[in-house]
Amino acid sequence: NDYYLGLHVNFGAQYKQFLTWFDVNFMPPQVSERPSKTYSATAGVEGEDGSIVEVRSKKYPLYDIKWYSYGVDWMFGWKLFGENTIINLIPAVGFGLNLINFHFASNFDLVYMENPNKWDTMRDRYYSTLATTFNSEMELRIEFSRFAIGGYGGYRFIRYNELKVESRTMNNTVPYQNTDANGDTWFAGLRITWLFLSDWQKKQRDRL
Predict the structure, then answer these.
(1) Which residues face 97 on adjacent strands?
(2) What is the pLDDT confidence band of residue 145, given thresholds at 50, 70 and 90?
(3) 23 CB-near residues (< 8 Å, 6+ apart)
(4) Which of 119, 129, 150, 177 could be disulfide-bonded to 109 (CB atoms 3.0-4.6 Å)?
C-alpha cells in the first residue's frame, strides 16, 4: 500500500518552551499476497558445441512478501508561541534507529560474484536490517492545562545500506550487491498528550 496506519508512543520532558522526547514507532505487518503456491523456472542444458540439448523445468515455493518495522527517534522541539499558550506551533527534529524485517517471495539463491560456484539460499523466514534515521516534524497543538491534543506531520529520512542473509553480509559498497534501499516516509497523525507535574510544580500548586 502507499500508506498505512502506524502507532507512535512518546515520552519525554519539557523545560519552559523547550521539549525533548523519545518517539517509539511501529509499522504493522504489510503483506503482498502470492499469486500461487509455486512458480516454475526453465533452464537449457548446453552440449559441448554450445547448443541446447535439453530443457529442464523445476518448481519452487512462492511465499507472501511481508515486512514490518519499528524504531525510536530522540526528538527536540520548541514551543514557538510561548510556554503555556492555548494554541502552539511546535517544530521538532531528531535522530534515531529503525529496524525493518521482511520475508522474501521465495528461496532465492544469492550467487557470489567472485565465485559463481558458491551461493547462499534465502529461507522461509524473516530477515532484518538496521538503519539510522533523521526525523523532522511540525505540530499544531491545543493545550488545556495538563491535557493537550494536536495534529502533526513531517518527514523521516531512512537508508538501509546493509543486509545479512544467512552467513553472508551484503553491503552497498560492494559492486553488484546494490543494497541501498530508500525507507523515507512522509507521515501525519493525531497526538494526545498528558503532562505530568514535577515535584516543584506540585509544591507550587499546593501553596495556591
Answers:
(1) 72, 132
(2) confident
(3) 8, 9, 10, 72, 73, 74, 75, 94, 96, 135
(4) 119
Sign of the alpha-carbon dihedral angle for 26, 32, 38, 44: negative
pLDDT at 55: 75
Write the secondary structure of 23-79 as one string of H (helix), E (strand) and C (coil).
Answer: EEEEEEEEEECCCCCEEEEEEEEECCCCCEEEEEEEEEECCCEEEEEEEEEEEEEEC
Distant-in-sequence, close-in-space partners of 36: CB < 8 Å, separation ≥ 6: 62
Element housing 205 (H / E): helix 199-207
Minimal CA–CA distance to 139: which of 180, 101, 95, 193?
A: 193
Among all chains, which residue has been given the C-alpha cell 517509539?
24
pTM, to two decimals: 0.79
